[in-house]
Design brief:
The protein is mainly beta and 284 residues long. It is globular, with a radius of gyration of 26 Å. It has helices at 2-28, 101-104; strands at 36-41, 44-45, 52-56, 59-62, 68-71, 76-84, 91-96, 105-113, 118-128, 138-151, 160-165, 168-171, 174-180, 186-192, 197-204, 211-216, 223-230, 235-250, 253-264, 267-282. Strands 11, 12, 13, 14, 15, 16, 17, 18, 19 and 20 form a ten-stranded antiparallel beta sheet that branches. Strands 3-4-5-6-7-9-10 form a seven-stranded mixed barrel. The chain contains two helices and 20 strands.
Length: 284
């Protein structure tokens, strides 16, 4: 009987030791959940940066200063930094070049775990004092992020702008809004994907009503303007043509559909067909 008790005690001690050792080994093993934001500006490490993000539908937004925003399908929305010059103590904002951003800025979403709500991205390229001018002051940035995110409920669901250009999907990744003052302010939504094309939505806020508008380029407002980036001149070329724009709601949430066909103003053989255009945005 004593031998049986002693043997059982030996097994218990041995198993317990092995379990503790396994736990220690697990604790020492690094995991992919470690948060880390590494950023170099002109080769200089910018130190500790918060690696927490939010996700609102398809868009990831950086919480720690809004440096980088991107989409769940791996497209860069924007990259912005405020650079503090160590030589004179001044600070200045820099952003990635907006037109055809995939050509001028390298971005890669290498991992997205929607269960653990973690991701990994890497980036490199130049950012500019004027994001529409390649000749403006620039800084070179590179780095990577191993981050976490929390889901955020949007104020308005389904914010989007997409279309098919010659049967290829175009989808907004970044945009700005321009307001031209007047008795009836004219609003222009400048929407970029991360490729060659830019699509503008023109409308008169407070005047436009639900309904269909047939338009040509000569119309001042309530129209769609399509442009293509020229890699030689680094300017946008407009397509001249006609289309229809149907506003489905204009009560602070603008929603609509459109189609357009036309020719490049500088190359008539460059023909474009825009179909299945749809958008939804909040304004003002």
């Amino acid at each position: 009987m004593k031998r049986i008790i002693f043997f059982g005690l030996f097994l218990l001690i041995s198993c317990t030791k092995d379990s503790v050792q396994e736990q220690i080994d697990d604790n020492l093993t690094p995991t992919d959940d470690t948060e880390e934001f590494t950023l170099f500006v002109n080769g200089q490490n910018q130190g500790l940066i918060d690696a927490n993000f939010t996700r609102t539908e398809n868009l990831f937004n950086h919480l720690g200063g809004g440096i980088i925003n991107f989409t769940a399908d791996g497209k860069l929305s924007s990259f912005k930094i405020r650079y503090n010059d160590p030589n004179n103590g001044t600070s200045k904002d820099f952003q990635n070049y907006s037109p055809n951003s995939q050509h001028f800025f390298n971005f890669s979403l290498t991992n997205l775990n929607e269960v653990k709500k973690t991701f990994k991205i890497s980036f490199s390229g130049y950012v500019y004092a004027n994001p529409l001018n390649l000749n403006s002051e620039s800084k070179y940035v590179n780095g990577e992020v191993k981050g976490k995110y929390v889901d955020r409920i949007p104020f308005v669901f389904g914010i989007t702008h997409k279309a098919k250009i010659n049967n290829v999907l175009w989808e907004k990744t970044y945009g700005t809004t321009q307001v031209i003052p007047g008795a009836t302010p004219r609003v222009i939504k400048h929407d970029f994907d991360n490729g060659l094309y830019k699509i503008e939505i023109h409308f008169n806020h407070g005047v436009v009503s639900v309904g269909n508008y047939n338009f040509s380029n000569s119309d001042i407002s309530n129209k769609i303007v399509v442009m293509k980036y020229n890699m030689t001149t680094h300017t946008y070329e407009k397509y001249i043509g006609t289309g229809s724009l149907n506003f489905l709601s204009v009560d602070g949430i603008y929603r609509g559909v459109y189609q357009f066909s036309g020719n490049n103003e500088n190359n008539p053989e460059d023909v474009i067909q825009v179909t299945d255009g749809s958008f939804k945005f909040k304004y003002p």
